[in-house]
């Protein structure tokens, strides 16, 4: 059994970039002040009782909301029991470790539930590695929780990150002749938990591992000591040890505080006698708080002989903070082997890069090409493109099992007698920025191996010139030098920053006003230089030819063939010569006019591997701010596109090399504008609006949405309706940036085309083709400013209390089975004749049917009624007001149903068979007709907003009513949610036809 922890994309990249930034990260990135203040107060709650450390958890205010997580822990225990039943060796080890916990008083059986705090049950599993002496490690999961609830890790302050200390301690280890390494035995379980916090660390275990995990076979335990697996455990351990050591007021205690990483301790010494004295004193110091220091090992054979075997680790190859260290040869080393499968996902690429642990940057040039690949424009779990897979295999095979090793010690002899200068070489290219540092012994001209080296890929989010990237590389170099000087005591007296960019040096020297970006980086560099000079360290800047700059390898990468003879690990040979033979130019010899070169250089392309070229953002094809209608914008772009296509065609006929254009070929050459021209123009406008957005950035901004780029380079949202029989634009709507000019034009065009319809109907219609984040705000803003709507909509009166709906409006029935009927008008025609509209509405689905009638006579109404039932079917119930034409019409219909002679008529025969019941509203209750009066108002507003005072003839009015009927039947009748684009609102048209009549 193996406990597999699949890190998320953010966690993997965070690990990669955090390791990459060791020694060069800004000190500005610290914890928030509230957390720091809380942790300072928390340290005061740590106590030392009877020779042991007692500590509570640093709890947040939301601890009261913590759920007990018992159901999750119980289910995980059931699954664990099944796994244990299939592996007897694993089962035996699991039981042994639990029994050891009980025997060593690490855990206890829960006997009572009386606790003032919440309780929490941690699931547990095992990491099984048969090749090790202790093949099983039990892991407790304090992040486990049900959806919507909190875990223990959510209610505990994590504390400071100790990753930054790795580089500091490694540099400290290189500044001394003799080092002594040890660790704390079972460090976490040496911290006693506060009595009130023990119930936060409960877990479930089996009485009999051979039986299923039913309640009668389960016992509840809780930790009495600090368990490993809680995110705050390393911080609690560190604060407990540091609090104790600071109380000792001892020089050795202060050294341990500086060189303590979780449960690993580094001690330095000048002589074996000093190292052995520190061994004895540190052992005694930690014994006072119940902690045992063990596995001491040194690079000095004399020191190792003086340590008893029970406290000594075996000589040979060990790991110092994860870095391979040979105590016999006194060397750090790294192996660069990675897998080279034919096809990898982006997750696997980043995971393999994470597996190469190189905090000192010894093999950084070998890994530049691989790290460039993980910036490819694909999703986290998608296969990287075949072209990149080939590059990955080629680069992996080129560096397969290449070893890099350097001597650990940077000095020989007493540290205080050495006069050293630190040399930082900096460089940048289109791919990466790099810096590498070397120590020169000025008295002997001897140059040490690489002290530390760093590479970083060039920024992806912004385009920068090469000189600006060189300036960033210098910033990396001065920060790395500051880190090395801080951790090398009084070893370094001078720092020299070397670059092959005269422009960057001119900027650093310049006293005139510089561009904002350049000025900011110059200020950061100046701040670090001032800090170094306060330590009485001299800082110089020099220019060097590119061929003499070892950092150049870190920007372009090295192959295994060129690796052995390159100067990255050993430093430049000319540095061992006398100063007059150095190929350097001091910054004072750089003229300030050379800083103008940056303005003439072309910005490099962003380092991002993509199958489509981004649109040029320097100039827009059409300025949408100057256009009020989307249809106008499309026609303008269509005319321009057709003209360009015609010009390109004529140009290609007279050229030996053809101009290849993808979008222009979609425009026709003929004179009239066709539908395909309008569609191509729309694509051009959309691409222009999307040009400022990258699909990777959008995917991070909207992690719950799946985005893709189509063949034209248009970004689309992939909904969950891919298998539905709906248009492609509805399955994958086009992304329109929020509050963009195009979004406003789309809203306006939809509003006007659909008779100035309401906000929810606009949203429904837009979603059939487009995805606009937070569209309701844009729609609401536009409809509020619509002059036509503001003129037509008066101030609303206070609404009366609503009565219960009648039965025929709430029972399940067919469309137009229960009908409401009303007249609206008169509407004056061109010839000043009066025309009317008869409105029929379904009382259950709110569908609408409109018929134009010449007058209010019974005959005209009956004709419209016959047309209605011929198209929509015969209703069972018809409701209306007490109009005289309706009363007479009802009597005529009854008479027709009772007249046997008329039964031969198909429609009337069917009506007589089915029967129609006519219900009149009481004369004194006009509100009972609100269901159709509301729709009469909608029809009137549509006519008024569309035609205003224009008079129509009979045919035109019939056409207008048909169009208005289609608009009203596509209005949403259910609630629309902004967040869920896959949820299509219900509309009357869905009951009539099952699809939109306007598509």
Keywords:
999 residues, alpha+beta, HIV Type 1 Reverse Transcriptase, Chain A, domain 1, Nucleotidyltransferase, domain 5, 4 domains, 6-stranded mixed sheet, 5-stranded mixed sheet, 31 helices, 16% strand, globular, disordered N terminus
Could you describe the largest sheet, including whether it forms a barrel? 6 strands, mixed
- Assembly type of the chains comes to single chain
Percent range of helical residues: 25-40%
* Main sheet strand line-up: 19-18-17-20-21-22
Organism: Nippostrongylus brasiliensis (Rat hookworm)
Protein name: Reverse transcriptase domain-containing protein
Domain Integrase catalytic: 802-996
GO molecular function: nucleic acid binding
Structure description:
With 999 residues, this protein is an alpha+beta fold. It folds into 4 domains: 61-326, HIV Type 1 Reverse Transcriptase, subunit A, domain 1 (HIV Type 1 Reverse Transcriptase, Chain A, domain 1, Roll), CATH 3.10.10; 346-600, Nucleotidyltransferase, domain 5; 624-756, no CATH class; 807-992, Ribonuclease H-like superfamily/Ribonuclease H (Nucleotidyltransferase, domain 5), CATH 3.30.420. Helices cover 37% and strands 16% of the residues. It has 31 helices and 31 strands. The strands form 9 sheets. It has a 6-stranded mixed sheet, with helices on both faces. The chain has a 5-stranded mixed sheet with strand order 29-28-27-30-31, with helices on both faces. Helix 13 packs across helix 14 (502-509). The longest helix has 24 residues, at 630-653. It is globular.
